[in-house]
Specification:
The chain is of the alpha/beta class. The protein folds into 3 domains: 135 residues, no CATH class; 186 residues, P-loop containing nucleotide triphosphate hydrolases (Rossmann fold, 3-Layer(aba) Sandwich); 53 residues. It is built from 19 helices and 9 strands. The strands form 2 sheets. It has a 7-stranded mixed β-sheet with strand order 2-1-4-5-7-3-9, with helices on both faces. Strand 4, helix 13 and strand 5 form a beta-alpha-beta unit.
């Protein structure tokens, strides 16, 4: 057994395709244990493993299938792979499979040590079959963090996952079916690899523009759709974001919420370049979905019209025409009375509220009057208020 552990250590240290796996703390501790074969090294390994669970096989199969390596990236780009690399992948997967079945007793015998050593669990997995299956689903599940999460934000120039994204689903959004169908159809075109338009959802506040985008992503995440939310102040990084996901097999919605510009805004140019399809910023697997309360996206004052720009009119027209660069524009207007009450009734059923219809509608109208008027947001806040006031059951 001593020689077997030495052999595993040598083979593990010679990984090529999956070499990044050795940089993980638990895997590096495992390699140290195989090499040193001491109780201290075993304890350090178990300490690292226990942060993820007590099953060694589960940990290794997860580390392997989530690894971003040269083989995976070639698969994602649909490039041909040489028999040499294919063979290396097979050999290394078999090695991981062998190591995943290593037990505490194996280590104890190799040490010639009969004292206490921490234990872990094992489960047999066919690593080659599971990894092949994972590659077959590459274009719907993705890889790396994009396989684990569906919504992301840009933070300090890095795309980071949103751990608790809005769980909103399309079935939970009442009214505005015509508007949502346009967004859904455009999104399905993106997913199917057909031409899809950048989309501007504009209109009154509280009408469900942002909720529509998030619900669409949740609806089609299992078909390879992901969302990356950016702030307006981050738009200068948009070309870099587009470039970073250009070779990814998944489809992306770059989401910009509550978009508007001042006339001298420096971020205007970055968005304009992407919307116009600049070679340096266009990604065929991504579209921009923006929401705004302003149809023309630009805040303009009377002083802007009397500036000293010789070509002031041309400048104003360029800024005002930004919205025209979106291939799809969808309008969300404040609901009329009937639509508002339809939303209220839908949400009341969704929240399990028992009600008298006339009384519910009277209270809903009064609530809207006290707020900024009728809107989907006002309807939801009203229903949430009623739900919070329900007596608790003993």
């Amino acid at each position: 057994m001593n020689n077997q552990l030495d052999d595993l250590a040598v083979r593990l240290s010679g990984l090529a395709v999956f070499r990044n796996v050795l940089r993980l703390r638990t895997m590096s501790s495992l390699l140290r244990m195989l090499s040193e074969k001491t109780p201290a090294a075993c304890g350090e390994f178990a300490h690292a493993l226990y942060r993820h669970g007590t099953n060694l096989s589960d940990y290794i199969i997860k580390a392997v299938t989530e690894d971003e390596n040269s083989y995976l990236l070639k698969k994602a780009r649909r490039e041909s792979i040489s028999p040499v690399m294919e063979n290396a992948v097979q050999k290394e997967l078999k090695l991981f499979e062998e190591i995943s079945m290593l037990t505490t007793e194996d280590v104890r015998r190799a040490m010639g040590y009969m004292g206490y050593l921490p234990e872990w669990e094992n489960t047999y997995y066919d690593f080659v079959s599971l990894y092949t299956e994972r590659m077959d689903k590459l274009f719907t599940r993705g890889y790396g963090i994009f396989a684990k999460y569906t919504a992301f934000m840009l933070k300090d120039h890095v795309i980071e996952p949103v751990m608790t994204p809005d769980p909103q689903r399309l079935s939970q959004l009442p009214a505005y079916e015509t508007q949502r169908k346009k967004v859904i159809d455009n999104t399905l075109a993106l997913i199917k690899g057909r031409p899809a338009a950048n989309c501007l959802l504009y209109g009154d506040a509280g009408t469900g523009k942002s909720s529509t985008v998030k619900a669409v992503v949740n609806e089609f995440a299992d078909r390879g759709l992901r969302l990356i939310e950016m702030k307006k102040s981050q738009l200068h990084e948009l070309p870099d974001v587009m470039m970073s996901i250009a070779d990814n097999p998944l489809k992306f919605i770059i989401f910009i919420d509550d978009l508007s510009f001042a006339a001298d805004d420096e971020d205007f140019g970055a968005l304009k370049a992407v919307l116009e399809g600049s070679i340096a910023s266009k990604a065929s697997n991504a579209v921009i979905y923006a929401t705004s309360n302003r149809r023309h996206l630009v805040k303009e004052s009377f002083s802007d019209r009397s500036g000293d720009d010789i070509h002031a009119r041309d400048t104003r027209e360029e800024l005002a025409s930004l919205s025209e660069r979106f291939g799809l524009k969808v309008t969300f207007l404040k609901p009329d009375k009937d639509t508002y009450l339809t939303i209220v009734e839908h949400l009341a059923k969704q929240y399990g509220i028992e009600y008298d219809r006339d009384e519910l509608f009277t209270k809903a109208e009064a609530y809207a009057l006290r707020r900024s008027g009728r809107s989907g947001r006002a309807a939801r806040h009203f229903i949430e208020m009623l739900k919070s006031e329900e007596p608790e059951n003993d």
